[in-house]
TrEMBL record:
The protein's name: ABC transmembrane type-1 domain-containing protein
One Pfam family from the record: ABC_tran
Organism of provenance: Brachypodium distachyon
Segments crossing the lipid bilayer: 224-244, 313-333
PANTHER family in the record: ABC TRANSPORTER B FAMILY MEMBER 29, CHLOROPLASTIC (PTHR24221:SF630), ATP-BINDING CASSETTE SUB-FAMILY B (PTHR24221)
GO CC aspect terms: membrane
Length: 493
């Protein structure tokens, strides 16, 4: 690790080779050696890395996910409005096709004997034209609403990534930190689940409502009594959908967490393959992967089984209830249909049931995507501890005079201090080496100077300015940092 003040003036630097070693102050009780500007540190215990996938913590419940995602959805209102307009066209075509479908047998029978040879009956052409128009409008509707949903997720990903970069360093490498694999899984895979959920909601709210109204109107016009009987089954379906949907949400949350743990584990173990091999850890890691993979398999199977069960349960509830109620109603009232009216009613009923089932599917898709949405927004709900003051200074140039004055720092409450009452003065133009074994606190000193962390006590001064009074961007612009670890950016190679 090496650092330097980026300024034409004489530089204060951290280099790797000391010149003279003499006892001085203490950093967490370990000897700091300084004379002719060299420091040596002894090691502190290094905690082994643990897989970290955790849920958010807070004293108050987080906002409802839909309220947080609404601004992103509202930004795509033009595309959504176009999609819903196409939905209105598709529903209009269906409403016109219902009576035409009821007349179709009569038209076909009349066409066989009354039409000229080779001439297609007009009613058949009408039904075919309405079906084609409905298919075209439905396709454009779905394409536009998919575009809106994917654009919302694109904006959401950008916002989440921006907020992740604004997180304090402790979020990534502290005891309560989050694994990089878990973060990547939330922004990529779980965001795709959010897109599916948003599309289902957008494709259901207006299109389903329009189709329910249109088909309900057709059914009432054909037979009011049976229409009321059919409507009585809807509350039963809603109860089934709500109960199974909540169960699906809980199962989906477990599935998301298990997949996140698997992704985080792979993200940790693969870059450490050298350590695994030299310590003969292959068998141990295979067993650990088997445990995580089997847990993900079980939770994912539970989710898929529940998704397969819900539509069948909804459909069965509606059909059984409708058959019982209709049979009882017809038996009591003696209601009769002519063939044309009966076929029209059945057509309208089928098209009335379809959006109810779609509503159930959309609700379940949302319940499946809700945990993913919560986990993405969990990345954005924070107030950074290291941030600029309203009156923070902007320094155009610095001389490089650095002072640590009685600085004490620990990474977490309950842990021993890494730096304990450190006093250090680096004058402009001096070259200072801080030497010692791994875990001695060398990098911690650099992190404190860069304001990646704030000390619990004491303060650090740059050119007679407390660094907490200097703008973060300005401070880090004037300090060059060369890490001891090479970090390849594979996507740029």
């Amino acid at each position: 690790m090496a650092m330097a003040m980026a300024n034409p003036a004489p530089l204060a630097t951290f280099c790797s080779q000391p010149r003279t070693l003499t006892p001085c102050n203490s950093l967490r009780g370990f000897g700091v050696i300084a004379h002719s500007r060299a420091l040596a540190l002894t090691a502190t215990p290094v905690c082994s890395f643990r897989l970290r996938v955790r849920a958010s913590k807070g004293s108050s419940p987080p906002p409802y996910p839909l309220s947080e995602v609404f601004p992103y959805v509202a930004a795509e209102w033009r595309t959504i409005a176009k999609g819903w307009a196409c939905a209105a066209v598709a529903v209009y075509c269906l409403s016109r096709a219902v009576p035409a479908a009821g007349r179709l047998p009569r038209v076909l029978a009349a066409g066989v004997g009354g039409s000229a040879e080779g001439q297609i009956p007009r009613g058949v052409v009408t039904v075919a034209a309405l079906a084609s128009a409905h298919a075209a409008a439905a396709y454009v509707q779905q394409a536009l609403l998919w575009e809106a949903a994917l654009r919302v997720v694109w904006r959401l990903r950008e916002h989440a990534f921006e907020r992740v970069l604004a997180r304090d360093l402790a979020f990534f490498d502290g005891r309560e930190g989050m694994a990089a694999g878990d973060i990547a899984h939330r922004i990529t895979d779980e965001a795709d689940d959010v897109a599916d959920a948003l599309y289902s909601v957008l494709n259901t709210i207006v299109p389903t409502s329009l189709q329910l109204i249109a088909m309900g109107t057709q059914m009432v016009a054909i037979n009011l009594q049976l229409s009321l009987v059919a409507a009585m089954v809807i509350p039963c379906m809603c109860i089934v959908i709500a109960n199974l949907g909540e169960r699906l949400r809980q199962i989906s949350k477990k599935a998301h967490l298990s997949l996140a743990m698997l992704a985080a584990y792979l993200n940790d173990v693969l870059p450490s393959i050298l350590t695994v091999k030299v310590n003969n850890g292959e068998h141990k890691e295979i067993l650990r992967f088997h445990e995580l993979g089997f847990g993900e398999l079980k939770n994912n199977l539970d989710k898929k089984n529940m998704k397969a069960l819900i539509p069948q349960a909804v459909r069965t509830t509606y059909i059984v209830g409708l058959v019982v109620l209709c049979a009882g109603s017809i038996a009591v009232s003696g209601t009769t249909f002519d063939a044309e009216g009966f076929l029209s009613f059945l057509t309208a009923l089928a098209l009335f049931v379809e959006p109810i089932q779609d509503l159930g599917k959309a609700y379940n898709e949302y319940k499946q995507g809700e945990p993913a949405l919560e986990r993405i927004f969990d990345l954005t709900r924070f107030i950074p501890q290291v941030r600029d003051k309203p009156s923070a200074l902007h320094l155009k140039s610095v001389m490089g005079d650095i002072k640590f004055q009685d600085v004490t720092f620990r990474y977490a409450a309950g842990m021993p201090p890494v730096a304990d009452g450190v006093n250090l003065h680096i004058r402009p133009g001096e070259t200072v080496a801080i030497v010692g074994p791994s875990g001695g606190g060398k990098t911690t000193i650099a992190k404190l100077l860069l304001r990646l962390y704030h000390p619990q006590t004491g303060y650090i001064v740059l050119d007679n300015h407390d660094i907490q009074d200097i703008q973060l961007q300005c401070l880090r612009t004037h300090i060059a940092f060369v890490s001891q670890d090479a970090t390849p950016w594979e996507i740029l190679i």
